[in-house]
Amino acid sequence: MLGIKYIKFDSMTYVIHYTNGKIRKEGRGLSFFYMAMSSSIVAIPMGSSDIPFMFTESTVDFQTISIQGQITYKVTNPKQLAELLDFSVDRRGNYKSNDAEKITQRLTNEAQTATSSFIHGLQLKEAIRSAPDIEKTIIKGIRESETVKMLGIEPLSVNVMAVKATPEMEKALEAKTREALQQEADQATYDRRNFAVEQERKIKESELNTEIAVEEKRKQIVEKQMETKILTEENNRKIQDMQLETDIALEEKRKQLVEMQTTNERKQADTKGYVLDTTLKPYKDLDWRTLLAISGNNSPKLNIALAFRELAENTDKIQNLNISPDLLESLLNDESEEQNY
């Protein structure tokens, strides 16, 4: 009615209401009535936005790669952005132009510009594996870009989701990688077998070392037993030597004792001989007849025996001698009676 309209925006949209080329009101989440014939409304989304990108570059070895990812940004200066791009909406809130898509194109261009020199210095394999470095290069290039600063937007993050070579090169790389992986698998098998052989060798070596150690211990035990035996024999020999020395000492003492006893007995015998010799010396030169007479033994038989002795000594002087049997019998009978008595 009379061209009066009503419009409402959410809190994530920054609204600028122009009337006859002048700002009538501005702010986030506005709702108001306006004259459609003389008003122009600009609506700029303030939330973060994600824009995909994909572009191709050449590596230092002249191989083409495609880089695919996503840039997240937000608007920090809506009035500055509204001065450069058309974000005007109709009475239903629909954008009248597609200038919002220009932000995507410009950010993609800045990302490619920042990446170009970096990719040109890499080999194909290095470039395929350098997604994190590409992300850092893009975010740094966008933040330092004057074009992005003029738009009044701030890049929040960059995610590189794929860095791919051409299909033909991918197949070649896959084949080469497959062959390398097969070689690695073969090498791993060889290493595993070699490791098993090495472990077996170490086990056998350990067993041999153990046997050597055991034999060494046995040798030490035998040597120790031999030393103990030798020491025992040495001690026994010393004991025998000590016993022998003791026996020799005893025999020496016994010899000395025997010599002393012999000496003493000799002295006693000498003394007895001297006494006897001294006692008998006066009778030494006496005639035996005198000794018999001195002894006082005047037995008739003794006298007859002496007479017979005299006769025996003088047989050369006697021509005939007669002894009666009665005399001999009487002498024998007397002797028997004396014995019996």
UniProtKB/TrEMBL annotation:
Superkingdom of source: Bacteria
Domain Band: 15-188
SUPFAM superfamilies linked: Band 7/SPFH domain
Locations listed in the record: Membrane
Topology relative to the membrane: Single-pass membrane protein
Keywords: Coiled coil
Name of this chain's protein: Band 7 domain-containing protein
UniProt keyword Ribonucleoprotein, yes or no: no
Signal peptide start and end residues: none
GO cellular component terms given for this protein: membrane
Keyword Coiled coil annotated: yes
One Pfam family named in its UniProt record: Band_7
InterPro entries: Band_7, Band_7/SPFH_dom_sf
Regions annotated as coiled coil: 214-270
Chief localisation class: membrane
